[in-house]
Design brief:
With 108 residues, the protein is mainly beta. It contains no helices and seven strands. Strands 1-2-3-4-5-6-7 form a seven-stranded antiparallel β-sheet, with no helix packed on it.
Amino acid sequence: GRRLPDIDRDGLDEFALAYSGGMHQGMGGTGVDIMKYSLGQLTGLGWFQAESFDENSSSAYLVTVRPGTSPAFFRQKFTGTNSGGWRRSGAVSAFRLRPVIGKFTAVK
């Protein structure tokens, strides 16, 4: 996880949880949930795909946010090169987080 300094301006810091989806039919990727913890509740603000890969290609996103009561999210796509590096692909674009689907419960 990674701390995100109060991106929704409610006085509490959010945090990011990254997870890998593994491989399925030759494709895989990594997602990131943006979460916050308040009053004993864990709440998801949304999630985004951080990278994807298959046998022949890979891509990743550099994600930035403009904090506010309705934070604005932006991403820059990068594609993998044959030498193992990354190349910028296209322009920075705005995007919306997808709803967080999973529920979290306390483990005792």
